[in-house]
Amino acid sequence: MSTYQHQLSCTGEQIDMDFWRTPEGVRVPDDELNFLLIPDEVEARALFEVARQVHVYQRNHLDNGDAITRALIVTMGGMLPGVLLYDHLVDGRDPGVPKIQFGTIGVSLYKGPGLRYENPLVQHGISIPISEQTVLLIDDLGDRGGTLDFLVNYLADSGASKVLTLVLYVKPAAMDLCPADFWFGQTPQDTWIITPRERVETIVKRVPVWKERGADQAECHRRLVDIIGYPGELVDYYLPRAFNA
After folding, report:
1. Which UniProt keywords are listed (predicted)?
2. Domain hosting residue 239, numbered range
């Protein structure tokens, strides 16, 4: 059993967070991508570590006016990280640290399958006042960095006095274009990161690609369960409809 497979199946004290800081995904036949499944417990622990980074920042900037007072969750990717971080950053904040007001902003990268907009499209605007505030932008991944870079400038143009970014994982292209201020781990650029909120989405998007390249349903099941590490019952439920769509 590989270290990756062991980490997917282990629980509690056996989880090695150092492994998850720089994980490499697994390759499946006839696919140019590596796939990395992030367990729920790993995401929760990783965000706890990132929250502690923010706590340090808040303590260090409490007296200079740069403490974070607003947080914007990028939908959909930032929804799960944002909910988990709220517990740490609001209810778990140090005495004297201002309460962070949470809101959302929605962006889209794609017109349709494989068709990217020239720039990210704002689907719904900033849901809370941010004028003259230090804003924390929360997303799940920094992939190419285009979304973060666009939003940082968008929020600055919308009146934020300072914009900080937080993601769970970053890739090299994102770190070159728009380095995150707070993050947990790094992956190679060709890694398809499957966070807990997009397991079904990945099945729906990738199975048709494998089918088109010659894989039958049994082979798709093998790739998802035996190689990537999906729970069998999840694949049994969603694979038939994804394969026959």
Report:
1. Glycosyltransferase, Transferase
2. 1-37+195-245
pLDDT in tens, the chain (245 residues): 799 999 999 988 899 999 999 998 999 999 999 999 999 999 999 999 999 999 999 999 998 989 999 999 999 899 999 999 999 999 999 999 999 999 999 988 765 444 567 777 888 999 999 999 999 999 999 998 988 999 999 999 999 999 999 999 999 999 999 999 999 999 999 999 999 999 999 999 999 999 999 999 999 999 999 999 999 999 999 999 999 99
CATH code of the domain containing 149: 3.40.50.2020
| Total count of domains within the chain | 2
SS (H, E, C) the chain: CCHHHHHHHCCHHHCCHHHHHCCCCEECCCCCCEEEECCHHHHHHHHHHHHHHHHHHHHHCCCCCCCCCEEEEEECCCHHHHHHHHHHHHHCCCCCCCCCEEEEEEEEEEEECCEEEEEEEEEECCCCCCCCCEEEEECCEECCCHHHHHHHHHHHHCCCCEEEEEEEEECHHHHHHCCCCEEEEECCCCEEEECHHHHHHHHHHHHHHHHHCCCCHHHHHHHHHHHHCCCHHHHHHHHHHHHHC
| Same-domain status, 151 and 201 | no
84 & 174 share domain? yes
